[in-house]
Amino acid sequence: QVQLVESGGGLVQAGGSVRLSCVASGSIDNFFSSRTMDWYRQAPGKQREWVALITSGGSTDYADSVKGRFTISRDNAKKMVYLQMNSLKPEDTAVYYCHGPLNSWGQGTQVTVSS
User: Fold this and answer.
1) pLDDT in tens, the chain (115 residues)
2) Backbone angles phi, psi at 91, to 5 degrees
3) Dihedral over Cα of 113, 89, 24, 3: its sign
4) What's the farthest any 2 CA atoms get from each other in the chain?
5) Angle at 67 between CA 17 and CA 13, to 5 degrees
6) Bridge-partner residues for 4, per DSSP?
């Protein structure tokens, strides 16, 4: 079993920055570093959408809507994944979720961008 806990959300003005963190725990000590980790988000009234991923080798990919503004990174020693979000827009307002091995999900962290 894998537990994921996100943190770092909050209220920010348009154009601002926020850094989200996700820490993994549970039955993951032996394989966190070998697994791809993702960030998703869900805006009010919309379906959950994929935002970014980072592979075990550090390769990254992003949704077109966030490319050039968001950066995903990981620290395998700490079993953590980060999402640095810059140049935030009101349309980035959503609950952000960490997704990992064994289809594990965190509880989400709210990011609200005011115009």
Assistant:
1) 889 999 999 999 999 999 999 999 987 767 888 899 999 999 999 999 999 999 999 999 999 999 999 999 999 999 999 999 999 999 999 999 999 988 999 999 999 999 9
2) -70, -5
3) positive
4) 44
5) 25
6) 24
Q: How many other CB atoms sit within 10 Å of the CB of residue 73?
A: 15
- Cβ–Cβ < 8 Å for 58, 74: yes
The rounded Cα 43 to chain-centroid distance in angstroms is: 14
Cα 29 to its chain centre, rounded Å, is: 20
> Quick one: tokens of 95?
């609950």
Residue 58, number of CB atoms within 10 A of its CB: 10
93 touches 112 (CB < 8 A): yes
Q: Are the CB atoms for 3 and 26 separated by under 8 Å? A: yes
Q: Confirm if 88 and 11 have CB atoms less than 8 A apart.
A: no
